[in-house]
Specification:
- The chain has 311 residues and is α/β, with parallel strands linked by helices.
- The chain has two domains: 211 residues, Alpha-Beta Barrel (TIM Barrel); 77 residues, no CATH class.
- The protein is 29% helix and 25% strand.
- It contains seven helices and 14 strands.
- The protein has a seven-stranded mixed β-sheet. A five-stranded mixed β-sheet has the order 10-12-11-13-14. It has a two-stranded parallel sheet with strand order 6-7.
- Strand 6, helix 5 and strand 7 form a beta-alpha-beta unit.
- The longest helix has 28 residues.
- The termini are far apart.
- The C terminus is likely disordered.
Amino acid sequence: MTGPAERLGRADLHIHTLASDGTAGIEAVLDHVEHRTDLDVIAITDHERIDAALAGRSMARDRGLRAEVIIGEEVTTLGGHLLALFIDRSIRPYRPLRATILAVHDAGGLAIPAHPLVPYPLCAQGWMLRRLLDDPDPRAHPDGLETFNPTSLGKPWHRRVVRFADQHGLARLGNSDAHALDAIATGWTTFPGTTAADLRQAIDSRATDHGGAFHGTAGQFGTFGQQLRKRSRDVRDEVAGRVRRDGTGRDHGYPGGRFRPPRFEAVNGADVGTVEVVATVELGGAVGDVTTVVELGGAVVDVATGEGGRR
């Protein structure tokens, strides 16, 4: 007699927050995932920064939430956007795709090209991926492809991406690429098990699959409007903080995220240290580097080099 089918875990590994170009803070994201989805694992993948992901993981653990949070980042490379998952440090952007994949693997992570094969500069092209897969160094190979992305970038090329992944033996991953709360879990990855460790093993063994529903055009215009309003608030808050000289700025979406430098304040009496992240912000056409500080567990770690110590 055959028992009931084993439930597959679900993960959404491409979520943005206020720390980059998303429109919701970490607390809202965690609450939405806990009460409005059946996700077992999420990855916070802000552009060129991991401070919100680190804060989210700490907050989810402290609150005993169902879904595990893994550290991720959407890294801009010269060959398109790359999801860096399970990393232990931030990945330097604006380098060749091959060099970035090597850096992700050196940081203990998995490298997944985001919304690939779309004829757009932010997307890895087929010839680039074939060259990487033929590279004699296996560390230069991507670990899978984002085969389902429900946005306007993903929909027209979905079947082509799935064929490419299957032809080249790459793990299939589905994600929401969410920039607003209601988009979370509109795309997902299924995997045997329910934990982040199970998910990583499934990606390594090519045992994942994708699912989801494509967005309507109207919904995406609504998100774009939210992003424009967020950008206006960011500029206003950064300028106001500098004028007042009160050590505040735009909201990065987690407790302590308005401080300059931003610093996540751990709760429950945890020992507090810092993790530094260099992020790029735009203020009315001016671009500058801001050192972001996340307070976690007493260790001081330079995420660019991985070197650490104590205060």
